[in-house]
Design a protein that fits this description.
By secondary structure, the protein is an alpha+beta fold. 36% of the residues lie in helices and 21% in strands. It contains 8 helices and 10 strands. Strands 2-1-5-6-8-7 form a 6-stranded mixed beta sheet. It has a two-stranded antiparallel sheet with strand order 3-4. Strands 9-10 form a two-stranded antiparallel sheet. The chain is globular and about 55 Å long.
Length: 256
């Protein structure tokens, strides 16, 4: 895997929408040293993680689609902890509303979910981890998960028998907010007030129906699922809601 030429390739797919129907980009980074391939993937993702900006009454606010530090850590973890014994490489997928990083192998044999999130080091590929540390791709064993959980909660992880998937919902500005690219209509206050009402509406729905899905909220509010995802992401960042349980079978808990 560390040879100048090999059969390992990391795939990055980009879709126009929220599903895998409309593929607009499909690239492979590999057939070379896994170190070089990982650095190339990191550069690609840095480009894709574009910064959006809005101008408020008092300041200009800039924000990436995904927080850069946890994105980098999750990406490197997906590579270094991937089970390459069956020649199944990690896959990274970019949708219109999220980024998904999938590695093969599931939890390490004997590792519990609690241990997985405990930030203790249990590398699947010890020699590969050592090399990644030597070249500076990882800093210290077990630190990657700490950096991810500093920004996101555990609900972004989907863990199955054979795969571990990390889902980063994009943090986008509200469609009605002023964007610092010339689309400034001087109506900041109205946009802010409308956004507040939209947020409160979503919060009220979560209070009454904690297990409601984004699709169901979209149907009941008339908002797009993309907008629902943005609002949910903002609420999680502000500490207003927390996900309890898995993505499919869990529910939302409101926090004061």
């Amino acid at each position: 895997m560390l040879a100048d030429e090999n059969g390992v390739s990391i795939k990055i797919a980009k879709y126009a929408g929220t599903d895998k129907v409309d593929l607009i980009e499909n690239e492979e980074y590999g057939y070379c040293s896994l170190i070089k391939a990982t650095n190339n993937v990191l550069e690609k993702m840095k480009i894709e993680n574009t910064t959006k900006a809005k101008v408020t009454n008092t300041k200009r606010v800039e924000k990436n689609l995904v927080e850069p530090v946890p994105m980098r850590e999750a990406l490197i973890n997906a590579v270094v902890h991937n089970d390459f014994t069956r020649e199944i490489p990690p896959v990274f997928e970019i949708f219109s509303d999220r980024l998904e990083l999938t590695s093969y192998g599931g939890l390490i044999p004997g590792q519990s979910r609690k241990e997985f999130f405990s930030c203790s080091s249990m590398p699947r590929n010890r020699e590969l981890m050592r090399v990644f540390k030597d070249v500076g791709l990882v800093e210290q064993l077990g630190s990657g998960m700490s950096r991810i959980l500093r920004y996101y909660d555990k609900s972004i992880f989907e863990i199955s028998e054979h795969f571990i998937k990390v889902i980063f919902l994009f943090s986008l500005l509200d469609e009605g907010e002023n964007i610092a690219n010339g689309d400034n209509n001087g109506d900041n206050m109205c946009s802010h007030e409308r956004l507040s009402r939209d947020v409160e509406l979503v919060l009220e729905m979560l209070k009454k129906m904690p297990s409601i899905t984004a699709t169901e909220m979209s149907e009941q509010t008339g908002f797009s699922t993309r907008k629902i995802s943005r609002i949910m992401r903002e609420l999680r960042e502000r500490g207003r809601i927390v996900r309890i349980g898995s993505t499919r079978k869990g529910y939302w808990k409101l926090k004061k």
